[in-house]
TrEMBL record:
Pfam families: Peptidase_M28. PROSITE patterns: PROKAR_LIPOPROTEIN (PS51257). It comes from the Bacteria. Residues 299-504 form the Peptidase M28 domain. It comes from Pseudidiomarina terrestris. Keywords: Signal. InterPro entries: M28_fam, PA_dom_sf, Peptidase_M28. GO terms for biological process: proteolysis. The keyword Plastid does not apply. Residues 1-29 form the signal peptide. CDD domains: PA_M28_1_1. One of its GO terms (molecular function) is metalloexopeptidase activity. This is M28 family peptidase.
Length: 544
């Protein structure tokens, strides 16, 4: 999962629910997850031999082979390419050539050259090895467009053939999940209106959350983009030739000829006012050189056919990402392997055990079940996004997605949080499934994190597929454990670090309950005569 550390919220939210006694498994349950099997899967996938399962690495290939072998053993039908379990994806890894990034502001009176790494940041191009653009500049507020929320930061300005300057972040009054979706669409909004460049402006408010110098520390990391079957990079809009992230302390030259000063813009933000778009009457030149490398990494897909002649051509999709972040470059540590036990060997283990449960159940599900382990989640949900664009079954026949990402199986949880449950009828399925095991369904305790837009279900949501995924809640069953504290400690001390490994005190019995709940969710969806549907008032019911 791609998530910001938020220890304080976890620690303060432990009182969301009173602890409940664990209920026995439902009397009608014919199958159950097995703790030892979960442990065996997790210990292999998070072993040092797989070296952190980075996208395109040998270790991730081994993980994929392991998942394929499990699918074969269960008798799942291949659902990859060419009659195999693999959906092989080509990726382009792009790096910025050292010393090639330039940013020059022409005010008419002078040319101001900014310093890379200290005043502006610039990533590589996924399209061109060399790129340069010079164009007039237009300020477009936050750069957002939404009829539902009454936003149009491009009103009354023409940005065709121009470079747009937009504030980082979004208005404070936007709901978190909806705002996160709009925020991720900023480049698209600019490209659709003919812009040739995008400058994102770091703000004083953003500085308090994430200092500019922290972002600069990650500047030299390469970017990864999937390539379509015809070799085109995804979502890298060709007309956006240049892009940069600019520190607000270096942005004054952009506003040298403006009717409204930069200080006035920031004063408006402090009052939570929406700045209006206007021409800046300056020109900017941005140039860079990029190096490209092609890598490949697979999704793995298998199908359990449904039993109902009318419903078997519809699919309940389970997803879990099999990749992690590979080896650390921090030489100060003795352990350099980011094993990713919780992130996301745990989720893949749950997926594999869920598949076994469906195969061994007394009655086959009416709808077919599609099990999909995806690659490159840590690179930006790329494996799931590729499958959503190039599905191996008709996308309109996928009725729902149950995503399994990073269950923190370190305590005996008494509640679960289901991201997406408030947007579709899947919320009813989750509450019913959890209740069968004496587990409460809690509200999202950290809505500002907008986690519903930050895992592998999100590409399917953008394609219209209702989705849900569970996280262990912050309430533990026994007084001797503080679930929120344990959850928060994991993110503070182990998330995306070598210590996320099998030496953690993993509670595999909690893993059994978590797996059983996710199985029951999928079974309910598979056997319901009606497809899940978006709730009428959900923003995600009709995405552009």
């Amino acid at each position: 999962m791609r998530i910001r550390t938020l220890v304080g919220v976890a620690l303060l939210s432990t009182g969301l629910l009173a602890c409940t006694e664990q209920a026995a498994a439902p009397a009608h349950a014919a199958v159950s997850a097995d703790a030892k099997t979960l442990q065996a899967h997790l210990e292999f996938l998070a072993s040092d031999a797989l070296e952190g399962r980075d996208t395109g690495s040998r270790g991730h290939e081994i993980a994929a082979q392991y998942i394929v072998s499990e699918f074969k053993a269960l008798g799942l039908q291949p659902a990859g390419d060419d009659g195999t379990y693999y959906q092989r994806i080509k990726f382009r890894r792009s790096s910025l050539k050292e010393g090639s990034a330039n940013f020059i502001v022409d005010t008419g009176a002078e040319q101001v050259e900014l310093e890379f790494g200290k005043e502006f940041l610039m990533g590589p191009s996924a399209y061109a090895e060399k790129s340069e653009v010079t164009a007039p500049v237009v300020f477009v507020g936050y750069g957002l467009v939404s009829e539902e929320f009454g936003l149009n930061d491009y009103a009354n300005v023409d940005v065709d053939g121009k470079i747009v300057v937009m504030l980082s972040g979004r208005p404070a009054d936007l709901p978190s999940e909806e705002g996160a979706h709009l925020n991720s669409s900023k480049t698209r909004f600019a490209a659709e209106r003919g812009a040739v460049g995008v400058i994102s402006l770091h703000t004083p408010a953003r500085e308090e959350v994430r200092p500019f110098k922290v972002s600069a520390m990650y500047q030299r990391a390469p970017s990864v983009t999937w390539l379509s079957p015809d070799g085109e990079p995804n979502l890298a809009y060709k007309n956006i030739v240049g892009s940069a992230y600019l520190d607000y302390q270096a942005a004054e030259p952009l506003f040298a000829n403006a009717a409204i000063s930069l200080d006035e813009i920031f004063a408006q933000l402090e009052k939570e006012e929406q700045p209006k778009p206007f021409e800046l009457a300056v020109a900017v030149t941005m140039s860079r050189a990029s190096e490209h490398e092609e890598i490949s990494s697979p999704n793995v897909a298998g199908i359990l056919p449904g039993s109902d002649p009318d419903l078997k051509d519809e699919f309940v999709l389970y997803t879990a990402h099999s990749d992690h972040i590979g080896m650390t470059q921090d030489l100060s540590q003795d352990d350099h392997i980011n094993n990713g036990a919780m992130d996301n060997a745990s989720g893949v283990s749950v997926l594999l055990e869920t598949a076994r449960m469906f195969v061994e159940a007394e009655q086959a599900p009416k709808r077919s079940i599609l099990f999909l382990s995806v690659t490159a989640e840590e690179r930006g949900l790329l494996g799931a996004d590729y499958f959503a664009h190039f599905p191996t079954v008709p996308l309109q026949q996928i009725v729902a997605n149950v995503n399994l990402d990073m269950p923190v199986l370190l305590y005996d949880f008494a509640d679960v949080i289901a991201f997406g449950s408030t947007h579709s009828t899947l919320g009813e399925s989750v509450a019913e499934a959890a209740g069968q095991y004496g587990i409460e369904l809690s509200e999202d305790p950290m809505p500002e994190q907008a986690i519903f837009t930050r895992s592998d279900h999100y590409p399917f949501v953008k394609k219209g597929v209702p989705a849900v995924f569970l996280m262990t809640g912050f309430t533990a069953k026994g007084e001797e454990e503080n679930g929120g504290e344990i959850w928060g400690q994991f993110f503070a001390e182990h998330y995306h670090r070598p210590s996320d490994e099998t030496s953690l005190p993993i509670n595999y019995q909690a893993g059994v309950v978590f797996t059983n709940i996710n199985y029951e969710i999928g079974k309910t969806i598979a056997n319901d005569p009606d497809r899940p549907r978006w709730l009428p008032d959900s923003f995600f019911a009709d995405l552009d």
